[in-house]
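tool_call predict_complex ligand=manganese (II) ion
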Amino acid sequence: MKFGIYFAYWETEWRGDYKAYIEKAAKLGFDVMELSYAPMPGYSEAYMQELRACAKANGITLTAGYGPTADQNISSSDPSVVANGMAFFREMLRRLEKMGIRSIGGGLYSYWPVDYSKPIDRERDRAIALKNVRELGKEALDRGVDFCLECLNRYEGYLLNTAKEGVEFVQEVDVPSVKLLLDTFHMNIEEDSMPDAILTAGPYLRRLHTGEANRRVPGQGGLPWNDIGRALRAIDFQGDVVMEPFVRAGGTIGREIKVWRQLVDKVDEGSLDHDALRALQFSRFVLGRQ
Ligand SMILES: [Mn+2]
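tool_result ok
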């Protein structure tokens, strides 16, 4: 089990000084730094190499997350939207390989946040997503990238809400690079039992996002972390446990994640770093027993 954190914890926009975050992750003792893919289409080839070298020099594994926009939706019934999305993802896979990022996760099979003012045709969209995820999964396999489908709560997604639905989908896709990303925040809304969901995901689980029910850092709320840890050890989880706390209101992140109030007393960098370090120590002990 490797332990990481999502850079967005410190930010209110989906971008930042990624080299500084890699150095911060190393300094705090993390194994993994998760970055948003959002700014990466604009990176030069030279900068992508620099990012890769920076991670290597700091002993940090990079992972990436992304929420496709409505015009990148590969489950759309509009073929021109799908064509745009497929081209976007092909370029993404090329860039990830270049940066040495071996794992991309999120609601990659749909778009985010979903506009629920429009009608939803779940079966139709699922079939379209299945075909296109399979095609991209083969390309991801060639690039050495794992394509991790995140199961999202009902308010943020409608195709994969539970681990069981995720496993059924991934089994139908049947390409080894296509795996699952579970997130304790979403599981807390959708699953009967978090440990059972982890056992259900079993070998398909590649990444686990962690955070309390209100998205504070692990250890500052009431989720069943001991049971979650037992389940991870029962499936011999070798993937990445990435905490994904959101505690700051404001900006695009505050609006899209719906953080309407500051969830901690202090959000200065030192206080956030301190909470992250405590949560890392808690996670290594309770989940990884290291
Ligand atoms: Mn997540």
